[in-house]
Write a structure and sequence with these properties.
single chain; mainly beta; disordered C terminus
């Protein structure tokens, strides 16, 4: 809703105004996106313009009211947050302001550990007690959930149903998401990829 095209990191991105904008993915084939009971990696390029007084949702699949599902947020202190149901894992380091940044959050569901990766460099791991999000029927939303609107742009959004290596993350950031998928034939584990020119949902 109201989201506009803008220059992203690789080709076009989508700009969110911090007030009303959201992009809802209504593809019916979203069963794999619940990510229940599996390790996963969620990432994107992001440039934010301002700090906020509340949590800003970037990529989500869940219901705020019931706190069920998974949420990738920018907190009011500019931490990158992975939220699984009602449990949070915040990055030790802060996200940049007014600078494009490649951000990845990963869940190791076997060891109940979250990882945050900024521009191909891993932050310290964070223990998270919720080993997997609960099942939910909500659509994937880029931008807003409830009143938590981000500002700035998103580009090259992806969800993998596995842990990515740092080398793979760096390659996605440098070569582009779709080039990585095509060159490595890793579409077997890609659940969603959105470069805002070509979309892939499995």
């Amino acid at each position: 809703t109201n989201v506009v095209n803008t220059a992203g990191q690789i080709g076009d991105g989508r700009f969110f105004d911090g007030s009303t904008d959201l992009l809802e993915i209504t593809d019916a084939n979203q069963s794999g996106l619940t990510l229940a009971g599996t390790s996963f990696s969620i990432g994107f390029w992001h440039r934010t313009q301002n700090t906020g007084s509340n949590v800003r949702n970037l990529v989500t699949k869940g219901a705020i009211a019931g706190s069920l599902g998974w949420f990738v947020n920018r907190t009011d202190t500019n931490k990158l947050r992975l939220r699984l149901d009602a449990t949070n894992a915040d990055s030790p380091s802060s996200m940049f302001l007014n600078t494009a940044q490649h951000c990845v959050v990963m869940l190791d569901s076997v060891n109940a550990v979250a990882w945050h990766v900024f521009d191909g460099v891993s932050d310290s791991s964070v223990a998270i007690t919720a080993a997997a999000p609960a099942l939910n029927v909500n659509n994937v939303v880029l931008g807003q959930t409830a009143s938590s609107h981000p500002d700035g742009w998103l580009d090259e959004v992806f969800v993998f149903q596995r842990l990515l290596s740092l080398a793979e993350i760096r390659r996605i950031a440098s070569d582009g998401l779709l080039n990585f998928i095509q060159a490595t034939s890793r579409s077997d584990s890609v659940t969603m990829a959105e470069s805002f020119g070509t979309a892939f949902t499995a």
